[in-house]
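Q: Hi! First time asking for a complex rather than a single chain. Here are the components, and I think there are two in total. Is that enough to go on?
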Amino acid sequence: MTLDEQTRPDFPILERVVNGHPLVYLDSAASSQKPRVVMEAMTRYYERTHANVHRSIHTLGEEATELYEAARDRVQRFIGAASREEVVFTRGTTDGLNLLASALGRTLGPGDEILITELEHHSNIVPWQMTARERGAVVRAVPITAEGRLDVAALDRLLGPRTRIVAFAHVSNVLGTILPVSDIAEKARGVGAITVVDGAQAAPHLPLDMSTLDCDFYVFSAHKMLGPTGIGVLYGRRARLERLEPTRGGGEMIKEVWIDRAQWNDLPWRFEPGTPPIAEAVGLTAAIEYLEKLGMDRVAEHERELTRRTLAELTAVPGVRVCGPPADERGAVVAFTVEGLHPHDVAAFLDAEGIAVRAGHHCAQPLMRCLGVVGTARASFSVFNSAEDVTRLARALGGLRNAL
Amino acid sequence: MTDVAVGPRALYSDVIRERWRRPRFRGELTGADAVAEDVNPLCGDRVRVQLALIDGRIEAARFAGDSCAICTASADVVMELATGRDRGAARALTAADVLDVLKTDVRPTRMRCVTLPLGVLTTALAEDGTR
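A: Yes, that's all I need. Here is the structure of the assembled complex.
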């Protein structure tokens, strides 16, 4: 049985008919759909357990705390973190990157350099710009080659004694390019820089092991990996987290408070002020259990096969141009353009066929400028996508140009 | 395949398709009196408007830029509707006026495609300091 045959019955949304056609959902890179077990776990939590965590000395409060902290243990194992203290819950990838930009930013001085890449999502560009402006630091970007790979020679040139932070995506949300995380981390360490990895497009699709990736920080969102919106993860190497000053205060993140000062709580709660997304943590646990049951190696192989098929089928459609490297060097994302057509019109036409793709700049305008396009259409995959989905996309695109 | 051929036709009105394929007001105005440009932050679409004004009346209007079919058609209609109007009347143009000409309704998510050219026109008129 193929992975999609096994998983499709678990996703109630796939029963939808959109504009007269059975839904083909190819927008998981923006947000994935959810298996029934995730929704059920969250509903069960609200119906049976809900209370605030860490402070309510009653049965429900204790159960809620257990579930919330169990999610942390689940994440720790899923990403191969050395300890549970290294797993901080955030509201999502953007939230995690902003937290890091402001907290790490406090250690920067005038002339210090933050190195990013040209393929970053805006959420891994703008927070660093804001920090740089505040501290007099400079943001520089490693270029991308014509094939959509990181220009490693340029990386070597740009890394230097002023480089304090190297922030980059594990997988590009447009080109799908998989960046060599451990190689970049090693080079960064060589100049004493801290590495921050945006794992939003990797966590749902690739087996993760923090000890192998060897970066200092790694952030991702639950909602792209079959989990709910509103929760994400910030992994931080313990020694780094311990030296990081929290930038957001409130309940939960303190040990003791006086009128003029406060003592911070232990890791990881130091970085989790306020009531956390508890039901979302429960949903994330269910999503991880679901993915682990399938096996991340099998998930990765299934999506690689879909990507390979998409590259082959789309390349064969006249007027369609795909962006980025070959299938074995990329994640579950294929961006493409159709000659003479604006990506929004392509997406609107595909929607009329029941096919959901993303179109536009994908929050990566600097990369769009490198590619010399206003935007692209983008098909992205998850465990429930089938070979038939790819064929329907290619067939619709084949008819699209004639229809205009 | 017939499905595919029919779908897109039903999606955009004939006027949108005609205006998008053969816009009448796309181009440059040499020595324009007022120029403005803006982008749609949602999609990165860019529209530039150039106006020739005489005594506060729009004598000629042209647009340029990269945009989708709806936005291009809207820009073309906005230029046509603006031509011959004085500043006040041109500023009073609404999305409803444009949709009337396009003979269509658009979904809320595409409304920005219709309103971007209107916004750029208003900016051009506001920033024009001449005559």
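A: The two ends of chain A are 39 Å apart (CA to CA). Let me know if you'd like any chain examined more closely.
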